Amino acid sequence: MTRSPLHRLIFGGLRRLLYLWVRSETINQSSMTLNLDRSRPVFYALPSPALTDLAVLDHECTKAGLPRPVLPVAVGPLQEPAAFFYLTPDPDWLGRQDKSGAPPTLERLVAAVSQHAEEDAQIIPVSVFWGQTPASESSPWKLLFADSWAVTGRLRRLLTVLILGRKTRVQFSAPIHLRELVQHNKGHERTVRMAQRLMRVHFRNLKTAVIGPDISHRRTLVKGLVHAPQVRQAIADEAQRENLPLAKAEAQALRYGNEIASDYTYTAIRFLEVVLSWFWNKIYDGIKVNHIEQVQGIAPGHEVIYVPCHRSHIDYLLLSYLLFRNGLTPPHVAAGINLNMPVVGNLLRRGGAFFMRRTFKGNPLYTAVFNEYLHTLYTKGFPVEYFVEGGRSRTGRMLQPRTGMLAITLRSFLRSSRTPIVFVPVYIGYERVLEGRTYLGELRGASKKKESVLDIFKVFGALKQRFGQVYVNFGEPIRLAGFLDQQQPGWREQDHGPQYRPDWLNATTARLGETVARHLNEAAAINPVNLVALALLSTSRLALDERALTRVLDLYLALLRQVPYSPHTTLPEGDGQALIEHVRSMNLVAEQKDALGRILYLDEGNAVLMTYYRNNVLHIFALPALLASFFLSSSRMSRQLLGQYVHALYPYLQAELFLRWTPEQLDEVIDQWLVALVEQGLLRQDNDLYVRPAPSSRQFVLLTLLARTITQTLQRFYMATSLLINSGQNSLSAEALEDLCVMMAQRLSILHGLNAPEFFDKTLFRHFIQTLLQQGVLHADAQGKLGYHDKLGELAEGVAKRVLSAELRLSIRQVALHRDDGLETSTL
Fold first, then answer.
1. Largest CB tally within 10 Å, which of 250, 631, 673, 725?
2. Residue 533 and residue 611: Cα distance in Å, rounded?
3. Residues 665, 768: one domain?
């Protein structure tokens, strides 16, 4: 291009045209500080072919009084038409690049210096940076085109010049003297490779200092996956099973790797930080972070796996943003393949997302590639994030853990446990979730909509609403080695080969999932919306006088301060009146004024939505609400009888709500709550008896509202046992019982005006039945039909009399006894 006078003339015109827009500066070097020998020829090495970089270099050399790169230069008898070359050679006419080859100019220079002992050539590595460093750039638009480690195309380079050309910087590295390299007498080829290696080091170190380290491991990692022994074996098996050539099966493995792997870039992280800083400030009143210092303390020297609860699509963006802002490395995030959409998927991938299919069944090659990818991340120390719930919770409850990712992690750790793994639970609580209205439709029966790139534009409509605050609490870390020491004391002595899958893996993984879920619930952030929803949804008309609501909220705050759920649980600031004002400002409650004051209520649109926010903290109030419920039908109860009933129900409440206490700790916690209820005037102690307030008193109303918090859960328990007992021994399978429970719950919700869609959630009934089986209360025969303990009916009825109204018990028994014959036939 600049090898002839005509080319140089054209190049000069292009340079002048370029500098109508571009402004450049040299960062650090001049002809004096470079320590150049002006009697020796000077050559410039650029990392890769780019006419714009060459034009900027020529301009800066002219300004600094350095030899121009586009002019001819001689090294002894060798005449070079220009004094520059690219370390990565120019592509051929088909666009192919031989990255392993050496630049022809460098080959000729080494030969000339080797053949003429008096000659030398000075090679100056030169780097051109477009725009500021990603760390200091504040414009999200400019960050998209800032320098990174990724290879760029011509269109992107043109856009980079147009957008970032006003802040172009040139940096000259110290010159490399070819004479010094030749004097090592390594031969021509080795000397050329030595020079190339020195220049690559120059370029890499400089680029690291300017734009940050190359944390985009994708280019080397994906190719390395197919060479792992487990993947090689899976490739061979795939080729044999599908009757494919080995090369074709290997190409398929590479495609899987590219589909899965993230393309983590520092530039994208900074871009997301700038955009999200604007977004959070625009849509939320603030983000409150608690207990992050413990993560900062354990991150060094550990493989950190963040396991947040999943409430919204923005969970992983929020967590990565907060970690980055607090000096922690943003994690590689497991994302569903449904999010790999045009534009959005690419940006998420560059921000650290790796994509996974919903199921691995029937595809052992994909499974092998995915497992090896995660193992590589773990062994290299990259922090990782995934959601143990699998998908977003539409009900606000903690979903039952899906143990697939935990099992992969556990097997990887058994395979190589050099780097200790720590799970960090992260509770993310929203006063108003961004997808709230979408969840509302799904809870009412609408089908889940597939994610679309057009959903981005819906966010702009949400900017007009007020979403309150976001709370991010980091829970108690779980050290995997310590967990295994408790669950499987001899695990360290076992032979952990690459294909090792111990018999205890499934059971241990399930317990690990339950432990993660409990730690997540322990870190709950209780906010004003949670407490207002809890109070209003416990009333029969979804309404309370403002002064009465204030008293209820003050009671809840007092109870939680006296008996904290866990050290990681956080409470809102202010009193009951302040909480009401905050929720009212978010338009989540309606009000009606009369001569006696204001009545606050939930309208039809918000009533179902508020069950979501109540369910966020249902586990916090489960035990005190259960204790209170025993006094709805009984005026007094002994401590012994209270303990007996609580112990009978606790395994099922714990399994559904992931309560934190072991059965051995339960009595101590019961006593703490009884003391608190007595101090707040909701109960009175008379020796070993606990006595409720007079039914006409204000305290009894407060006790009743607290008890109703857990009523729907107890109704579902009674419903399932009533259906089972009325059907008789060994007459229903677990699946048939589930279906009957759902249909019965739907009918009761209509008859009694229940406004909680999770009341007839099939998964809740399924898990209750599984817990009954685990507790030995139920057993399945060879045909899968359920038998039950002889005293199940007596126990269920005895507890139900204490905690459920006679009207509700009668309604459940009638529906169970006289269910539609056609319905029964269809479900059996």
1. 631
2. 7
3. yes
Question: With 70 as the cut, is the pLDDT of residue 128 above it?
Answer: yes
Query: Which tokens is 748 given?
Result: 């009761």
Q: Are 344 and 456 in contact (CB under 8 A)?
A: yes
For strand 469-474 and strand 286-290, is the pairing parallel, antiparallel, or unpaired? parallel
Distance CA 307, CA 422 (A): 10
The CA distance from 385 to 353, in Å, is 9
What total number of domains does the chain contain? 4
Cα-only R_g, the chain: 34
Do 569 and 586 contact (CB within 8 A), yes or no?
A: no
Q: Which two tokens stand for residue 299?
A: 């991150």
In a domain, 98, yes or no: yes
Range of the domain at 554: 525-615
Based on the fold, state whether residues 590 and 735 are members of the same structural domain.
Answer: no
Total count of residues recorded for the chain: 828
Phi/psi-derived region of residue 99, left when phi > 0, alpha when psi is between -120 and 50, beta in every other case: alpha
Query: What tokens appear for 235 in the block?
Result: 């490739």
> Is 651 a residue whose pLDDT tops 50?
yes
Same domain membership, residue 547 and residue 531: yes
User: How confident is the model over 499-541, as pLDDT tens digits?
Assistant: 667 889 999 999 999 999 999 999 999 999 999 999 999 998 8
Q: Is 310 in the same domain as 454?
A: yes
722 and 806 inside one domain: yes
For residue 620, being part of any structural domain is answered with no
The identity of residue 209, as a single letter, is A
Q: Of 587, 615, 643, which residue sits at a domain end?
A: 615
My answer on whether 532 and 671 are in the same domain is no
Q: Report which of 509, 422, 512 is spatially closest to residue 474, judged by C-alpha positions.
A: 422
Instruction: Identify any residues that bridge with 424 across adjacent strands, giving them in sequence order.
Output: 306
Distance from C-alpha of 709 to C-alpha of 724, rounded to nearest angstrom: 25
User: Rounded distance, CA 286 to CA 298, Å?
Assistant: 26
Q: What pTM was estimated for this model as a whole?
A: 0.76
First vs last Cα of the chain: how many Å apart? Answer: 81
- pLDDT of 174 strictly over 90: no
Q: CA-to-CA distance for 125 and 505, rounded, in angstroms?
A: 54
pLDDT in tens, 43-70: 999 988 888 888 999 998 988 888 999 8
Tens digits of residue pLDDT in 71-100: 889 998 899 989 999 988 655 544 455 555
The answer to whether residues 302 and 397 belong to one domain is yes
Lowest mean pLDDT among 392-396, 453-457, 637-641: 453-457
Residue 604's pLDDT is 80
